[in-house]
Amino acid sequence: xxxxxxxxxxxxxxxxxxxxxxxxxxxxxxxxxxxxxxxxxxxxxxxxxx
Length: 50
Description:
Distance between the termini: 32 Å
Oligomer: single chain
Number of strands: 0
Structural class: mainly alpha
Protein name: DUF397 domain-containing protein
Shape: elongated
Order of helices and strands: H
Radius of gyration: 17 Å
Largest sheet: none
Number of helices: 1
């Protein structure tokens, strides 16, 4: 094994996702509410992800 694929004692993996979402103006409030309902529980269950 080389240093790039050698197991680390307390290694953590970060997944970074970036993108652009185009939401019609009349749907922004609904989109934001649904995004929070979906992503906040995931973030709360995994401290240090935000």
